[in-house]
Amino acid sequence: AFDPALSELSNAYRKEFKEEESIGNYYFWRGEEKVVASRAQLLELYKKAVEEIPIISIEDAFAEDDYEGWRRLMAELGDKIFIIGDDLVTTKDSTIEECADQKLINTALIKANQIGTLSETVLAVLVAFGKGLDIVVSHRSKSPNDDMEAQIALAANALGLKTGGGANTERLFKYGAVTKVMKDMIKLSRTAFKEEPRVELGDFIDKLVITEIIAYEEPTNAGIPTVGVEVYVGLKGSKRYRKLLRFTGATPLGTSAGVDEAIHLVDSIIEDSPLVARYQEMFVEQPDRTYRFKKEITEEDIKEKDDPDLTELWLKAQRYKGKGCKNAVDNVVNIIAPEFIGRKMSELKNIADVDKKLLLLEGKAALMRKKISKDDSREKIIEVLQRKANLGMNAVLTVSLAIARLIAHVQGRDLWELLREEMKEVMAKTIAANGGAEVLTGIVDSASLGKMSSDGKLSWESLKTELSLSELVQGLQAVEKKLKQQGRKLYETLRTQISIYDVEIFK
């Protein structure tokens, strides 16, 4: 399985030969002999390699903007190997659909950190399912010890889980999670259970609330931190029992090469402020209306200003060569945590409700910083929400993950089981709202459809309960064909059933 990361080599060509608009040319600069290759030459190389080597997949075979290269590769090798889009699709529902429609890929790489919440990751997976794509769930090579990727892969029954060679502890952590689930399922299948015992826990559980959310810089195998959180559940007002349960989350470092990915917020990214305006000669504005210290600014320049606030900002921006995450940690503590502390554990029903709140907080920060306005289109606002440039992907996804583990625990599930249930629910609702029995004909026998019907209509609840994941996927694919005939988009239809983008609140 190959991942040549061609976007990087396309960018290297543009930089080396000063051809900023070049598409389809690649500069192999790492070897002693520097080589330039065109898309046609690369395609011939891939074809020759597939004939001689037992290759099963090629990921990022061309740059993310070299659509013609991807199209030719699919035409030549799409029936022989898995052609995987990573930088090309960035775990974004609309982009996955576009690439599938243009026949650029047959497999989508799913990285939750590219989009920034578990619900949006579910949307990306479901679009891939509906378009008939295989999926591979992937880590980032710079990661903490967290099994998020393994849980997502198990939930989706993915073709593959890509978490690298087993040389680093954080990779073994993810593989170990799969092993544990397998052992648990084997034991479960061999155990005879009696009827569920009656246990009166309702009053006690209803008293449990989120008592604390602690955020910190979590170490990674790269020596650069990400954001980690601990969510505590206990009895409100009790010192002794305020930490009865603990749930954690930590997400991978940074973006890969995809230009459309959610932002891993680091401390060298500086928002506009009176301090920036006061010393504007020291900063350079970025296209996203944030600022950086100019490269030529030195510590002596900062000392000359004799301003404690400027010094503090400078020192923060220099930590880990600008890759510290104190600002993202502060966003969890000061903006996100107050919205969840005090919430009853019993009130947290599903991941989508949590992520909707997180996206609302991201949107409010964007509105306050004038990154969006009430006059912006729905598409523009959703694009800003997906980028997470204000609170940071590392802040938002980490909280999404930790609270999802809390919800799963309340329901007596592992995280992968909760994620699968949410996938099944969205597919069931989509099928029920777009044809029901009609689209399931040939997938489910008529007798079974009859049992799931009430007053001649299929309920989504019965579809979710009675149909397997694979049957629901087939039903979703049937819905997709119907939508395509009507000129409608699958991702837009799915968004109506997992309503996390509450855009109207910003207008």
UniProtKB/TrEMBL annotation:
Residues 1-181 form the Enolase C-terminal TIM barrel domain. SMART domains: Enolase_C, Enolase_N. The keyword Mitochondrion does not apply. One of its GO terms (molecular function) is magnesium ion binding. GO terms for biological process: glycolytic process. Residues 210-419 form the Enolase N-terminal domain. GO terms for cellular component: phosphopyruvate hydratase complex. Its EC number is 4.2.1.11. Gene3D superfamilies: Enolase-like C-terminal domain (3.20.20.120), Enolase-like, N-terminal domain (3.30.390.10). Pathway: Carbohydrate degradation; glycolysis; pyruvate from D-glyceraldehyde 3-phosphate: step 4/5. Keywords: Glycolysis, Lyase, Magnesium, Secreted. Belongs to the enolase family. This is Enolase. It comes from candidate division WOR-3 bacterium.
